[in-house]
Design goal:
By secondary structure, this protein is an all-alpha fold. The chain contains eight helices and no strands.
């Protein structure tokens, strides 16, 4: 970390690479496009490089960088007013999740598509908190840290986002 703060670009690249999978999942949950996620990460990395000297606590690097990236993603989603995109069967994950054991693979794909569609109708802020909690598998205190908000606020926002997601999914069920 200290080498990166002193201007070592290779050391900084290593810091970015260590967080890349987590940050990508969180950002993708907000912007919903791999290309947009890559753009956000590039912009966030540049911003982090420029502001790295101001980071006081080296141990807070992962949360600090995630916060920059998620805020960039929310800003992009707001500017572009991300719309629900058509979801095709090709967009469905290729492998079944742990909860899919013993289930019909087709129903697992349909369920995932329904979740992805419902997520697309949520606000960027809702997608960000859900993406950090479930996409990046962060515990709620870490989500709060990544978003730069108090723990209680993170808990209430997460609860509201889950409720909104459930309502969207129920609305989809009613449309069938």
């Amino acid at each position: 970390m200290s080498a990166a703060r002193d201007g070592d670009e290779i050391a900084f690249a290593r810091l970015i690479e260590a967080e890349a999978p987590h940050v990508f999942r969180a950002v993708l949950a907000v912007v919903r496009s791999p290309q947009d996620a890559q753009e956000v990460i590039q912009d966030a990395s540049i911003r982090a490089w420029r502001q790295l000297r101001g980071l006081r606590d080296e141990a807070s690097w992962p949360a600090w960088y995630r916060r920059i990236a998620v805020r960039q993603a929310i800003d992009m989603a707001g500017r572009r007013r991300v719309r629900v995109r058509e979801i095709s069967i090709e967009d469905a994950p290729e492998t079944a999740g742990a909860g899919d054991v013993g289930r019909d693979p087709a129903s697992a794909v349909v369920e995932r598509l329904a979740v992805m569609s419902a997520l697309g109708r949520l606000t960027p802020d809702d997608r960000a908190i859900l993406g950090l909690r479930y996409g990046s598998d962060l515990e709620v205190p870490d989500v709060a840290l990544a978003l730069g908000i108090p723990l209680g606020t993170a808990k209430s926002r997460l609860h509201r986002a889950i409720s909104r997601l459930a309502a969207e999914m129920e609305a989809d069920d009613g449309d069938r």
